[in-house]
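Q: How do we represent a protein-ligand complex in a form that can be generated cell by cell?
A: Start from the inputs.
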Amino acid sequence: MASPVDIEALDLKALARTIRGDVIDMSHRAETAHLGGSLSVVDILVAAYWGVLSLDPKDPLAPDRDLFIFSKGHAISAFYSTLAHRGFFPIPLLETFAVSGGSLPEHPSPSCVPGLEFATGSLGHGLPVGLGMAWAARRQGRLSRVFVVISDGEANEGSVWEAALLAPAQKLGNLAVIVDYNKWQATGRSHEVMALNPLKEKWQSFGWNAVEVDGHDIPALVDALNKHPYHSSQPLAIVAHTVKGKGVSFMEDDNNWHYRIPTADEVRRDRAFCPGGRKFVELGPWANRG
Ligand SMILES: Cc1ncc(C[n+]2csc(CCOP(=O)(O)OP(=O)(O)O)c2C)c(N)n1
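Then emit the C-alpha cells for the protein with thiamine diphosphate bound:
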C-alpha cells in the first residue's frame, strides 16, 4: 500500500490555497452554498491526504487501504478538490460540480468518484459507519485505519455520541475522528445551540485519546495524526480549532457564508488576496444545469 507522500518536498500551503480557490469557483459556478464550512476544513484534508493516509489513487479499492469518511458532506467541494489534486480523478472534472447528471453531486453518493467511501450529507452517520469499518478491519485482521471528519454542528447528533461510547468499549484504536471545530453551525454559534464545551474533555471522558490542534497548522495536524498508536485499544479524537471561511478575509468567521454564494465580483476580490496565485476566469452559468 502506498504511503503518504514526501511532504517535505511539497508546498502544502500553496496546495491548500489552490483547493480553497477551487471551492470558491465551484460555489460560484454551480451556485451552491456551504462555502464557509468548506473553507474551514481544507487544511485538515491536506494534512490527511498528503501527510497521513496510506492509499494509492491508482488502486482505490485496495483491501488494506486506509479509509476516510468525509461526514460533513455539505462541504463536499473541498473534498472533491482534495481527491482530484491527490490523483483520484482528473482535476477538470471539478468543473462539473453540481451539474445535473454529472458525477460530482452536491452531496456525494457512494462510488460517484474513486476514493469516496461513503455517501454523506445527512449529518451524524459518518462516525457510526466509520466505527463499523474499523471494527470489521480489526475482526478481519486488516491493517486499515479509519479516519472520519465531522463538523461541530454534527456533534448535535446523538448517533455521534453513541459511536463515541462504543469505540473505546470495542478497543478500536484504528479509528480516528477529527472535529472541524469552526464554532459555527447553520443558524448560530455552536456552543449556544448545544453545550459542546469542553469538547476535548468530553471525548477524553468517553475513553478517547483526545488532543487539541490548530486546524490550520498542517504540520501540527500531520504530527497529531501520525503519532497516535493505531494498533492500540484507544481511538483518537482530534479537536481541530478552525475558522469558518478561512483563507478569504471577508468571509472569515462570518456565518453569512454558510448559505451565501459568491458573486463574480466577490470571486475577483478573493483573487486580489492571492497575488500571483489563481486567476479569475469569467464564468457563465452551466449550460446543462438542471
Ligand atoms: C441530519 C441533518 N440535519 C440537518 C442538515 C442540514 N444542515 C446542513 S449543514 C448544517 C449545519 C452546519 O453546521 P456544521 O455542521 O457545524 O457545519 P459547518 O459550520 O462546518 O459548515 C445543517 C443543519 C443535515 N445536512 N443533516
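Residues 11-272 form a domain with the Rossmann fold fold (CATH 3.40.50.970). Strands lie at 67-70, 146-151, 175-181, 184-185, 188-189, 209-214, 236-241.
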